[in-house]
Specification:
The protein folds into 3 domains: 121 residues, no CATH class; 122 residues, Leucine-rich Repeat Variant (Alpha Horseshoe), CATH 1.25.10.10; 141 residues, Leucine-rich Repeat Variant, CATH 1.25.10. 72% of the residues lie in helices and 0% in strands. It starts with a helix and ends with a helix. The chain binds 2-acetamido-2-deoxy-beta-D-glucopyranose (2 copies). The site of one 2-acetamido-2-deoxy-beta-D-glucopyranose (NAG) has 3 residues, from loops. One of its GO terms (molecular function) is adenyl-nucleotide exchange factor activity.
Amino acid sequence: MEKRSVAIWIWVWVWVLLVMTVGIGTMRAEGVNKSVSGGLFWSTTKEEGDLVRKAESEESTAVFNENDDIDGGFPSLDGMLQWAIGHSDPAKLKETAESVQQLSSDKLKIRQLEIKELMERLKMPSDAQLMRIAIEDLNNISLPLEDHRHALQELLVLVEPIDNANDLHKLGGLAIIIRELNNPDSEIRTTSAWILGKASQNNPVIQKQVLELGGLTKLMKMVKSSFLEEARKALYAVSALIRNNLDGQELFYAEAGDLMLQEILSNSSIDITLRRKSVFLVADLAESQLGTRNKAEVPFFSNSFFLKSVVELTASTDLDLQEKALVAIKNLLQLRTTDALVFKDFCELDGALERMKQQLLAEEYQRDYAMEIESLRREVELIFHGKLEKVTQVPT
Ligand SMILES: *[C@@H]1O[C@H](CO)[C@@H](O)[C@H](O)[C@H]1NC(C)=O
Ligand SMILES: *[C@@H]1O[C@H](CO)[C@@H](O)[C@H](O)[C@H]1NC(C)=O
């Protein structure tokens, strides 16, 4: 239905409702004008649904009283009624009222149902409906690129609530978004990765689905993209997909995810955001490993070169990166398979921690943050020395 005809329909039905609700008897007895001045409008704090329900329950009996006067809320319908009354001819109104009164109660009920239906249709579309539309647009190849970008931007917002994320797969959206990771347009690829990351975050159901649909492998390739934002969003999505997800982690290692991280960590010319995200992921993976002591530990965690590249991050001038590196080192030190002597002799962790201390104490601009990191640094030092003592103690 067109907007215009919808408006006319509302107008007509509101009239029927109005006439039924105010009570025709009262109108007749006291004259329309007096009724109007006495407060013709029923209480208008409710929503459309309430209005209909009220009309239903009270049928055509008189409902208005002085207390039920205008008490705010719902200004548009209220305004419409005022306008309608102001512009109506009392004789006509009376005629309409009489014709309505002649309707049988069955017919009235049917009309009320029709009003209700109309009101339902006027409601905002649900999130699921909006997602369906966006997915349809993405699938419609005759739409221009700009519309596809726009559809993805909408999905990005819509997937935030966990229920919506779950609906996305039911609507067939995940497969389509994963397909869009291959789009020639980098903006489309970037937003698609972002959506997958958002939807997978703390959501094992979506993680599983994206993994099954082959999303992880594609996202890992995208981390190497020369478009910076694409690489960042891809790494974000990879982290969200494998966080607390052992199947995802297994696949990540099988696809040489460890090498990917090492390359990023050991190359200081790589974007700082990518480096922070990578070391954060290392900390997360090591922590996950700590939680599953029975499983064989990942060889990469005991790779000396890899450990060295993590330790070297402590020399960064970026406090955020330093902090994340410390968390990673702390978790790595607690793994059974990491060797305290490798940290000591090959990574030179003692010297690194000492230099970090001097740097943190000299920090001027972000003193509080630096002090927070310093206390984490001391904790790491203690854990390190504890681990070292265990291996250097002479058995008695
Ligand atoms: C695709 O978009 C075009 C242009 O808006 C539209 O005419 C067409 O009906 C759409 N096709 C589908 C299958 O929705
Ligand atoms: C380090 O990263 C830069 C920028 O991405 C790249 O050009 C360079 O080849 C990398 N160096 C090594 C040794 O991989």
